[in-house]
From TrEMBL, chain B:
InterPro entries: ABC_transp_permease, BCAA_transport_permease. The chain crosses the membrane at residues 20-43, 50-70, 76-97, 109-131, 158-177, 198-228, 240-268, 275-294. Keywords: Amino-acid transport, Cell membrane, Membrane, Transmembrane, Transmembrane helix, Transport. Its main location: membrane. The keyword Hydrolase does not apply. This is Branched-chain amino acid ABC transporter permease. It is a multi-pass membrane protein. It is found in: Cell membrane. Coiled coil: none annotated. Belongs to the binding-protein-dependent transport system permease family. LivHM subfamily.
């Protein structure tokens, strides 16, 4: 979808991107020491930023639009919540189990979905995700409409209690940083380059001898696992897993965050997540207004603002973000 | 035979009728999607919202409009709504196509899907804001009240009417596209729009009208649905995913294919409800997985 060529930094000196990323992470790490921004709000942003980054990995770098990523986000959210509450595992084990589940699910869904392309791919992922939604309403452990409430945050490595928001903040920032590094690593690896070549010109990638379907499936699986990481973290942060996490509107939100932030940029999904979460916070009590605003932003982005926030900045400053 | 299966013939036939009704809605909606997809290459995500809009306009016309304009005794009757709602929705869609969708044709087809998704959210949000999410019921029109009694079975007239009208409209659409001169122009437009334009045919006009007509079909289904289902702001978003699954199974290769798949899957869903009720809501998705494994392009689809 995005046709700007991406050059990776080859010089020895640090690229603008690296410098900027370090600055942003340092700022994020200092955030708990001030009174302006609410901890819980930022943690929520991290969860959805991971989710959006997972989608961006697929959409921005492999050119695959999945409309069913809520299935991975939500299933990991449920599984992590269940593991924490019923089995009393530590948070990192809880997240791990959640991610394993979403990765496995991603492999199965990916296997089915990559058989078709473009719009069909989007529709198939959407329909497959709906099965998970139905399961979540039927299976006993998800508690139907109520969801899994009062999920304990546990103790990190059995040592650090995550119940206080300040501790949880550092933990979620750490998870977010890991996810960010993973996405960066994938995007800049030879694997990522092949994905880009598939996005730009699939027949050519095939003629070069790449097993395109295998690459797509791998990208899909990684993306699903990462979406699950966001979902599992969300269950810990908000101490809740509910039907909203698996509903298809959630998939749409992740797509919106990605587009709004900037498809194919590493910081884009994070910016997009921050804006959308902020917006929903403001409009939470106003009935249908949050849906209306979400839809309107979607329309504006698609019509006039396809580069997104970070994409636009990167384009103006002629740097890679 | 029914005794052997442990199902009463009454329950069986009743579920078949429900299946057939659901199938009629699937057919009408996937038909509209197929018509639009054929010419614009856009998956019209607003389709569910327009179906809701059709039902909402019908309900508003009967119960709200009179009070709004200060004439409480004014009621827009069902039959008028059956024509008026699709017209309004069609006109609205034409405006959407002219002002927004048109700008995206030169881009990846995914942008069309995303734009229509955004519009669907706005529409749904507006109606949720105005009318909440509680269901409103719409009375069955007087002339279609009552029903047939056959062998201890009650077949409501309205439901028979819905199946009949839906089949008629589906057949008419199929006939128009596959058997008339104008329909052949439309099909030519999907094959080679530039050539057709060079021959002096106003292709953009055809595209606009097709989009309007496809959307009007969704609204028509909405009017038919109003007396059967609860009229709510979210009725479309629940249905559209199932219709997408129907479309994936059918493959959107042909007009007839989408009609047959829609009806067939409605009946399959109804039958699942008889024999294994728990699975009825997922039966279509299970079928989708099986079809994808065996025939990725769908039952009537062409491999592209």
């Amino acid at each position: 979808m995005n046709t700007t060529t991406v050059t990776t930094a080859t010089s020895n000196s640090m690229s603008t991107f690296t410098k900027l990323s370090i600055v942003i992470f340092v700022l994020l790490a200092l955030l708990p020491f001030q009174n302006f921004v609410y901890d819980l709000f930022m943690m929520k942003v991290f969860c959805f930023a991971i989710f959006a980054a997972a989608l961006n990995l697929l959409l921005g770098y492999a050119g695959l639009l999945s409309f069913g990523h809520a299935a991975f986000f939500g299933s990991a959210s449920y599984v992590t919540a269940h593991a924490m509450k019923e089995w009393g595992v530590t948070p990192e084990i809880g997240l791990f189990i959640g991610v394993i589940c979403s990765t496995a699910l991603g492999y199965v869904f990916g296997y089915l979905a990559i058989r078709r392309q473009g719009i069909y791919f989007a529709m198939i992922t959407l329909a497959l995700a709906q099965i998970i939604y139905f399961l979540a309403t039927q299976v006993p452990f998800t508690n139907g409409e109520d969801g899994i409430q009062g999920v304990p945050r546990g103790e990190f490595l059995g040592l650090i209690d995550l119940s206080p928001s300040s501790h949880m903040y550092w933990f979620s920032l750490g998870v977010f940083a890991l996810a960010f590094l993973l996405v960066m690593r994938v995007v800049r690896s030879p694997f990522g380059q092949v994905l880009k070549s598939i996005r730009e010109n699939e027949p050519r990638a095939i003629s070069l001898g790449y097993d395109v379907d295998r690459y797509k499936l791998m990208a899909f699986t990684i993306s699903a696992g990462l979406a699950g990481l966001g979902g599992g973290l969300k269950a810990l942060v908000l101490q809740l897993a509910s039907l909203t996490d698996v509903a298809w509107q959630m998939s749409g939100e992740a797509v919106l965050m990605t587009i709004l932030g900037g498809i194919g940029t590493l910081w884009g999904p994070i910016a997009g997540a921050a804006v959308i979460i902020n917006l929903q916070n403001y409009l939470a009590n106003l009935g249908g207004w949050s849906t209306i605003a979400t839809g309107a932003i979607f329309v504006v982005c698609v019509l006039a603002f396809r580069r997104g926030i970070v994409g636009e900045i990167a384009h103006r400053l002629k740097i890679q973000l | 035979m029914f005794e052997l299966l442990g199902v009463s013939p009454q329950a069986f036939t009743a579920q078949m009728l429900i299946g057939l009704i659901n199938g009629s809605f699937y057919a009408l909606l996937s038909l509209g999607l197929a018509v639009i997809f054929g010419l614009l290459n856009v998956i019209n995500f607003t389709h569910g919202a327009l179906y809701m809009l059709g039902a909402m306009l019908t309900w508003i016309g009967l119960t709200q409009l009179g009070y709004w304009i200060g004439m409480p005794e004014l009621e827009v009757p069902y039959l008028v709504a059956l024509f008026l709602a699709p017209l309004i929705v069609g006109a609205f869609s034409i405006v959407v196509e002219k002002t927004m969708l048109k700008r995206l044709y030169h881009l990846d087809h995914l942008y069309g899907l995303l734009l229509t998704f955004g519009i669907a959210l706005v529409l749904e949000g507006l109606f949720r804001h105005w009318f909440g999410v509680l269901g409103n019921s719409y009375p069955v029109p007087d002339m279609l009240r009552g029903g047939l009694r056959v062998n201890g079975l009650f077949l409501p007239y309205y439901r028979l009417w819905v199946v009949g009208v839906a089949l008629l409209v589906c057949f008419a659409t199929w006939y128009f596209i596959e058997r008339t001169k104008l329909g052949s122009l439309l099909r030519a437009g999907t094959e080679n729009p530039r050539l057709l334009q060079a021959l002096g045919v106003n292709v953009p006009l055809i595209i606009t009208l097709t989009y309007g007509a496809g959307c009007a079909l969704a609204a028509f289904a909405g009017v038919l649905a109003a007396p059967i289902y609860q009229v709510t702001a979210v009725m479309g978003s629940e249905l559209i995913i199932v219709v997408f699954a129907v479309v994936v199974i059918g493959g959107m290769g042909s007009i007839a294919g989408s009609i047959l798949t829609g009806l067939g899957l409605g009946i399959v869903e109804g039958l699942t409800k008889v024999f294994y009720p728990e699975a009825s809501s997922v039966s279509i998705f299970v079928i989708m997985i099986i079809v994808l494994l065996l025939k990725p392009a769908g039952l009537f689809g062409k491999v592209r």
